[in-house]
């Protein structure tokens, strides 16, 4: 797996693709061949569809982890307040790819929307396990006895109990474990022992192409007994029909939930847009009121100026009247003071 991750980081593109499934087939083949050049996978990997599916699934997860780890490095740069995160490309990532991931992959609104939805969906998970990065099949193989058999309830117990505290990491685990033990005892007493796949489906529920508590599947069971293989065909047919119905019901439920989430996001976006428009209207109204106040202020200043001009005009007219009167008085006095010969009389 380390070699597979190394070849993915060396050969796979980061631009224009978001998933291992979107990478062109020649690149995928080159990655797989680079791993096969160093490791032998199965007796005949080219004709082993199960081995190919498992390796393809692991490549999908490793490519997703690679992009996730790059994003975490970018977020750490932002938290540290780095002025230019574009110049801090991680080892093995070109500056061009790093800039693309920041601008197109992580800052793009569609990515942010998917990121928020994914975060909300992950928060809905009811519980987790304690096996770390080790896959369930590998962890189960380490617990297998000499015959290759695994006590599934016991494995489930070790995978969901705290190593430090010794308690269930969630009380729900204890209840599920008790259900497994009771189901296993009942089936064994009836002479029809169950495989760990059947225990998983009946207690943990079903999920398409996945066995809860077992990992990628369905997988061949190492604990299948001859009695289990000889079950009545009618019962198998009924179980198959029931499984199809459950899968269809789960699919319909997931689709309905997804549609409901999309409608909720659309309502939130619409409400946000409505609030923004309301704020814009309020700002426009406020601006309009301010302009109206400015006009009123200018009008008052204009009226005061006109009034002042009229008052000054009236004052000038009054002064002119007084000046004319004084000139008339002076003229009459000058006439009275002049003698008959036209010279002023001196007294």
Mean pLDDT score, rounded? 81
Structural class, by secondary structure, is mainly alpha
Distance between the termini: 140 Å
Major sheet: size, sense and barrel closure?
A: 2 strands, antiparallel
Counted by DSSP, the helix tally is 11
Helix content: 55-70%
Percent of residues in beta strands? under 5%
Plain-language structure description:
- By secondary structure, the chain is mostly helical.
- Among the domains are: 1-125, no CATH class; 130-224, no CATH class.
- Helix content is 67%, strand content 1%.
- It has helices spanning 2-11, 25-36, 49-79, 95-106, 109-122, 136-143, 152-159, 171-189, 196-204, 226-229, 233-337, and strands spanning 210-211, 215-216.
- A hairpin with a 3-residue loop joins strand 1 and strand 2 (215-216).
- It is elongated and about 160 Å long.
Characteristics:
single chain, about 350 residues, mainly alpha, two-stranded antiparallel sheet, about 0% strand
How would you summarize this macromolecular structure in one to three sentences?
It contains eleven helices and two strands. With 347 residues, the chain is an all-alpha fold.
């Amino acid at each position: 797996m380390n070699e597979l991750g190394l070849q993915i980081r060396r050969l796979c593109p980061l631009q224009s693709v978001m998933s291992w499934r979107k990478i062109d087939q020649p690149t995928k083949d080159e990655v797989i061949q680079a791993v096969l050049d160093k490791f032998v996978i199965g007796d005949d990997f080219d004709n082993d569809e199960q081995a190919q599916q498992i390796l393809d699934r692991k490549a999908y997860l490793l490519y997703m982890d690679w992009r996730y780890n790059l994003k975490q490095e970018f977020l750490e740069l932002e938290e540290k307040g780095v002025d230019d995160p574009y110049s801090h490309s991680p080892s093995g990532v070109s500056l061009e790819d790093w800039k693309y991931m920041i601008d197109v992959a992580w800052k793009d609104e569609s990515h942010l929307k998917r990121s928020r939805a994914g975060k909300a969906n992950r928060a809905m998970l009811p519980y987790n396990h304690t096996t770390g990065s080790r896959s369930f099949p590998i962890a189960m193989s380490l617990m297998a006895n000499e015959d290759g058999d695994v006590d599934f309830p016991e494995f489930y117990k070790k995978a969901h109990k705290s190593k430090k505290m010794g308690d269930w990491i969630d009380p729900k685990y204890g209840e599920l474990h008790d259900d497994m033990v009771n189901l296993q005892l009942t089936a064994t007493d009836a002479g029809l022992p169950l495989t760990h796949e059947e225990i998983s489906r009946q207690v943990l529920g079903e999920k398409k192409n996945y066995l809860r508590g077992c990992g990628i599947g369905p997988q061949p069971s190492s604990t299948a007994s001859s009695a289990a293989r000889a079950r009545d065909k009618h019962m198998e047919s009924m179980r198959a029909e029931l499984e199809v119905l459950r899968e269809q019901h789960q699919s319909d439920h997931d689709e309905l939930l997804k549609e409901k989430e999309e409608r909720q996001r659309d309502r939130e976006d619409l409400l946000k847009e409505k609030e923004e428009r309301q704020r814009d209207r309020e700002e426009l109204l406020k601006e309009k009121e301010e302009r109206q106040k400015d006009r009123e202020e200018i009008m008052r200043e204009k009226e005061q100026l006109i009034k002042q001009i009229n008052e000054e005009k009236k004052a000038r007219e009054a002064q002119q009247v007084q000046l004319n009167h004084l000139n008339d008085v002076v003229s009459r006095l000058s006439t009275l003071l002049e003698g008959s010969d036209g010279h002023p009389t001196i007294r």
